[in-house]
Design brief:
Layout (H helix, E strand, L loop, with lengths): L1 E6 L5 E5 L4 H10 L7 E4 L5 H13 L1 E6 L2 E6 L5 E2 L1 H4 L9 H8 L1 E5 L11 H10 L3 E5 L2 E5 L7 E3 L5 H12 L4 E5 L5 H12 L3 E3 L5 E5 L8 E3 L4 H13 L3 E5 L7 H10 L1 E6 L2 E6 L7 E3 L11 H8 L5 E5 L10 H6 L3 E5 L2 E5 L8 E3 L3 H13 L3 E5 L11 H7 L3 E6 L1
Parallel strand pairs: 2-15, 3-14, 6-7, 10-11, 18-19, 22-23
Antiparallel strand pairs: 1-23, 1-24, 3-5, 4-5, 7-9, 8-9, 11-13, 12-13, 15-17, 16-17, 19-21, 20-21
Helix pairs in contact: 1-2, 1-7, 4-6, 5-6, 6-7, 8-10, 8-12, 10-12
Length: 416
């Protein structure tokens, strides 16, 4: 198992190119089950979850190759079972449910992580598919779905679930008749999936809004498609520049999709400027604390909550962060406190009072975005920071330490 070592307090300077978005690439890869003919995808990040998804595709009957951030996939004799050994490592695996039901009329998909359905978000997926004509059994930890042929339906989600919207989008693309998704997720990654499906011959409109309409077609064809850049990776670099009082140029930065993050950074005292194909970022005077509430897109993204909290740790004054998306997304707080941060928790709200500096210490990553926040903290902390359990980081950031080293950071990987 690896750990990251960071010698902090070094200013950064130069260019960082943003990789493809993991949260867009994963559903697009699983949608490769549907088309007849070869799919050629570009800007696919080399990440653990991507490799897991490619293994799953191969098991399901898609022949895939992955080289130089390009994936080629050709669907063959599609199988209908997604085994637990793969699904347990990645919750996004449940997104093969919709394509398999639509294409084969059957799907047997292990419950992610062995969790019970109950009130979990996957229940929203199942209710939507039931409206489209599917029936489900829970069998030895597997969701077993069957249908003669999925039918178009009106789907209204209780809340804008990203995975649920994506699963229904893929299934409805080749279902009989028209489907309308109300209270659909508006995230850019959902829009990217819809654009990919349209490139394959689907008839989808309204993506990026709360009402998406899908006119089912009989089949999809292969296409060439480039995955959108990762807005959360880009946002992490914006915070890293502000955290270290540096200037960075972020290439392939999805600036419009970062509107809520950029707004809060500017409110804190960070200068962010879009210049053609790049975004330039640097601290603009003294940082100050702000109040943030995480919300579905286009609100402030929960995936940037930990990084902005870290920046607020060294800002003047106080600020609060209210987490409204996930229940247990403050596990990084105690690790930041180990670095000298002043943070108090009350329910789903964190109260942050800025300190003069952070000091390096051994810390442990609890999840993907927590890992990123600890890296950002370590870049600015005085002395050495050791981040353990960075396998979380490898799930969502492509060659992070190499990209940061190239702009001056003293960061490297060691075996624990």
């Amino acid at each position: 198992m690896d750990k990251l070592i960071i010698e902090g307090g070094v200013p950064l300077h130069g260019e960082i190119r943003v990789s493809g978005a993991k949260n867009a690439a994963l559903p697009i890869l699983l949608a490769c089950i549907l088309p007849e003919g070869p799919i050629n995808l570009s800007r696919v990040p080399r990440l653990r979850d991507i490799h897991t998804t490619l293994k799953l595709l191969n098991i399901l009957g898609c022949e895939t190759t992955f080289e130089d951030n390009k994936v080629k996939s050709v669907a063959g004799d599609i199988q209908t079972e997604a085994p637990y050994d793969l699904v347990k490592t990645m919750r996004a695996s449940v997104l093969c449910l919709g394509p398999l039901l639509a294409l084969k009329g059957e799907a047997k998909v292990a419950l992610p992580g062995g969790c019970a359905i109950g009130a979990r978000p996957v229940d929203l997926h199942l209710r939507a598919f039931e409206k489209m004509g599917a029936t489900f059994d829970l069998d030895s930890g597997y969701i077993h779905g069957k249908c003669k042929k999925l039918k178009g339906a009106e789907i209204h989600f209780d809340f804008p679930t990203v995975g649920g919207t994506e699963n229904v989008l893929m299934a409805a693309a080749i279902a009989d008749g028209d489907t309308v998704i109300e209270n659909a997720a508006r995230e850019p990654e959902v829009e990217d999936l819809a654009n990919f499906l349209n490139a394959c011959g689907a008839k989808i409109s309204g993506q990026g809004t709360s009402i998406i309409k899908i006119e089912g077609v009989t089949s999809l064809k292969g296409c060439n498609y480039t995955v959108m850049p990762d807005r959360i990776e880009a946002g992490t670099y914006l915070v890293a520049a502000a955290m270290t009082d540096s200037e960075l140029e972020i290439l392939d930065c999805p600036f419009q999709e970062l509107d809520a993050v950029v707004y809060k950074l500017r409110e804190m005292g960070v200068w962010v400027h879009e210049d053609n194909d790049r975004v330039i970022v640097r601290r603009h005077g003294q940082l100050k604390g702000v109040d943030i509430t995480t919300q579905p897109f286009p609100g402030f993204p929960t995936d940037m909550q930990a990084q902005l909290m870290t920046l607020m740790c060294i800002a003047n004054g106080a600020g609060t962060i209210e987490e409204k998306i996930f229940e247990n997304r403050f596990m990084h707080v105690q690790e930041l406190v180990r670095l000298g941060a002043n943070i108090k928790l009350k329910g789903r709200t964190a109260m942050i009072r800025g300190v003069e500096k952070l000091t390096g210490a051994p810390v442990m990553a609890s999840d993907l975005r927590a890992s990123a926040s600890l890296v950002v903290a370590g870049l600015a902390a005085e002395g050495r920071t050791e981040i353990q359990r960075i396998y979380h980081l490898d799930r969502g950031y492509e060659q992070l330490e190499k990209k940061l080293s190239a702009v001056g950071a003293r960061i490297w990987r060691e075996k624990e």
